[in-house]
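Render this sequence as a predicted structure.
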Amino acid sequence: MEILGFFLSSFMVASLLFPMGKIEELIFNAPDFNIELSEIYLKNLIEVNPNTRLKLAIAQRYIKTGNIEIAYNILGSLRDVKDLDMKREALGMVYEILKWKYLWARDKHQKDYIKRQIERCVRERLVFIKKEGSLESMFYELISLDMPNLAMFVAKRYFLIKGKKDVKMLEKLADAFLWQGEYKKSIPLYEEIISLEKKATKKKRTFKKVVKILMWNKDYKELKRILLKYMPRFFEDEDLALFCLQIALSTGDPYFARNLLLKALKSQP
């Protein structure tokens, strides 16, 4: 008890005497101690010196000792600070905590709530993220968390900074939406892949995938649009042309199949 009091009392004195870098180091590297008593002393420390940098150091200390919820509450008070570097650090820690909480949550309502918190945090963090690598890492994290809508938001930021779209990321997004059952969101992304992909085999494979998705979902209106748009481009591939005609006939509209064939023939030199 005396040792505990000595360390934490020392923190309070140090917060008044030492520069912030030193007191942060003392807090973070102090030996582990009784959790309940440490909470009391650290809360008192914040009251004695409510410096935002000190709060961040204490939040890091709580994370180190496994007191995630307390750390999260402290960090929440730093999300609106004027110091942008401080806000950036706090948001980064909040993001990591929220990911951890989301992965461990078992109740659907709880997961949905945390998911909304992650969305808010990501949107706030993007203002501070300028590096392509950091955005790319966040994108793939969100894909792995099954959050394609938020991943798309990050991808747009990434594409803007990079100056061009990335086919691999578009494919990950499209597949993620498809996995969630939101095939209508995946189709425009697959179309972008067809447009951007340089390899003919990949273009054709993606086109066939789109056709199969629409056929499976019995979205004949969109299927007809896709066939009319892309079949003339791939008509030189006999197997693919035959596949398209078979699909067109499968819609139950023989006139459409006839018109599709005529349009494909007219498009040839």
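Summary. The longest helix spans residues 84-104. The mean pLDDT is 81.
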